[in-house]
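Reopening this ticket.

The earlier resolution said the output was attached, but the attachment link was broken on my side. Pasting everything inline this time so it's all in one place.
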Amino acid sequence: MNVIYTPEAKAELDGAATYYRLKSPKAALSFQHEFNAVMERVQTSPQQFPFVGYGVRRAVTQRFPYNIFFE
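Inline output:
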């Protein structure tokens, strides 16, 4: 599965990364690792994530309040 970020998604991800970087370099690194791990799961097994409507699925990070919506 190819991943293409919308400009809005990219801006939100950049904002979250900046927030955690300002909070703590360790938190920023943890966020990056968790986001990458969830995205790897999305790419390899997208069907494991529930539909939330109109063909859109949602993946949730465990340690951070971050949802990833994809189709």
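Reporter confirms the inline version is readable. The CA atoms of residues 16 and 66 lie 9 Å apart. Strands lie at 51-53, 56-60, 67-70.
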